[in-house]
Amino acid sequence: MSRFGLARRSCALAGTALLSAMSLLTGAGQASAASGTYALLTFPDQDHSAVYSFIDSATSSVDVTMYELRDTSAVNALVEREKAGVKVRVILDAKHTSVNGSAYKALKAAGVGVTYSSSAYVYTHQKTITVDGAKSLILTGNLDSTYYSSSRDYGVFDDDSADVAAIERVFAADYAKTSVTPADGDHLVWSPTDSESRLLDLINGAQQSLDVQELEFGDTDLVNAIVAAEQRGVTVRVVGMDPSSYGGNFDQVTSAGGSVVTYSSTTGLYIHAKAIVADYGTATAKVFAGSENFSDNSLNNNRELGLIIDDQAVLSSVESTFANDFANGTAY
Questions:
Q1: Which of 115, 173, 175, 195 could disulfide-pair with 191, CB 3.0 to 4.6 Å?
Q2: CB count, 10 Å around CB of 182?
Q3: Up-side HSE of residue 284: CA atoms within 13 Å toward CB?
Q4: What's the CA angle centered on 183, arms 48 and 34, to 5 degrees?
Q5: End-to-end distance of the chain based on CA atoms, in angstroms?
Q6: Would you list the DSSP string of 137-154?
Q7: Please, which residues bridge with residue 212 across strands?
Q8: What digits encode the pLDDT tens for the residues 250-272?
Q9: H or E element that contains 290
Q10: CA atoms of 195 and 209, how far apart (whole Å)
Q11: Is the pTM above the cut of 0.85?
């Protein structure tokens, strides 16, 4: 879920791309991947300037749900939109006031509609920005600049109208702290509603390959599904963190014939991403990216959001990044 219990160190990685939100949404720019209604951000290869530009592009509204907000540039961008007459609303996780407190105070002082999350969820671990009720950015990582230089994370811009409408409906309920049953739109994966079943469907549907990149790797049902996939002939590769916590689960994967590499606090890159690529290179290939970890709490007790799409450019970019991370990890 977060980096608690693990030491962190920052590293400077080459290849930082400076892209505007407009270039991402139109598919322009060397480091973006876009097709139709989707566009990918890959961190830390890119910096967060496109996120700030996305906020800056708002003309009527910005709705943010964020587990951790500790980024002065992002907070300032939200404050500037409020000053410009844009309706800005922010939900921050209530159990992380030590991280979120400064942003909460700054936003509150500027007149932004900011609230701490509902106690209905163990954590509000979702990381989403929606602008003008028309486009959403679904992130695997937080807006916490403390970790930007070393965290492997992804963000997907999505302007599918059904997806955005569903995100906004849930935001309104969570902001008001009222109950809601999320709709999946065309591509969404929600916790605690259906994320486990949706991810199980993705894993169980794989016929040729599964590439999995997850910070937490402890959910029994998902790990068992990966093992079952291996047993029916699917090639499985996993990029993970902290073998001292998930060694038993990694053992299951490798014993069934899969390959696992891990990263640690001493290697620079921190695998914070939550992503799955299934059957890459086939007509049925799909990619998942979101806030959901492979843990019971993340799937069944938290507020989380991800999406599953078949966009070829996003698929290719996530797969390329995964392959590089897999090649540079430590074999388990």
A1: 195
A2: 20
A3: 11
A4: 35
A5: 21
A6: EEESS-EEGGGTTTEEEE
A7: 238, 276
A8: 999 999 999 999 998 777 899 99
A9: strand 286-290
A10: 21
A11: yes
